[in-house]
Specification:
alpha/beta; about 50% helix
């Protein structure tokens, strides 16, 4: 029986060079499968700082820049489902800050959003260690 899922990518006033949507889609599916869950509808929306800052203010009442905001629809929809908004300028800044490549950092942030939808948190130091460990592991599936 074929699995029904939708994984889409949108670009709001930004573009990403050398971004392989099929490879990332495969990584997301492998991650969800290894966590013994079923993929649903996932939308990755790549945007700029202004757009994500407005989302942060409007929906979360936070007046700060962030690299990612994840909206979880797993309860309302079948499978692991949500909208994941990612600020490309924040990803670029973090790549420089952590001395990683832009695409590696982007893949990490994508996985971070998916892991949130899978139930992983990052509020405490222990949760952050688990999240980082999971990110590192799933990144190895890509590279």
């Amino acid at each position: 029986m074929a699995e029904n899922y939708i994984i889409e990518f949108y670009y709001l006033n930004v573009r990403i060079d050398s971004f392989d949507e099929d490879k990332v889609r495969d990584l997301v599916l492998k991650t969800i499968k290894q966590e013994e869950k079923k993929a649903g509808t996932l939308q990755f929306i790549f945007c700029d700082d202004d757009y994500l800052l407005e989302m942060n203010r409007t929906f979360l009442n936070h007046d700060t820049l962030t690299d990612i905001i994840t909206f979880d629809y797993c309860q309302e929809m079948e499978g692991i489902s949500g909208d994941i908004f990612i600020s490309l300028p924040r990803v670029r800044e973090n790549a420089e800050k952590y001395s990683s490549g832009f695409l590696e950092e982007l893949h990490r942030v994508i996985l971070h959003g998916v892991l949130h939808l899978l139930g992983y948190g990052d509020a405490t130091e222990k949760e952050q260690r688990v999240m980082r460990s999971k990110e590192n592991y799933y990144l190895t599936l890509l590279f």
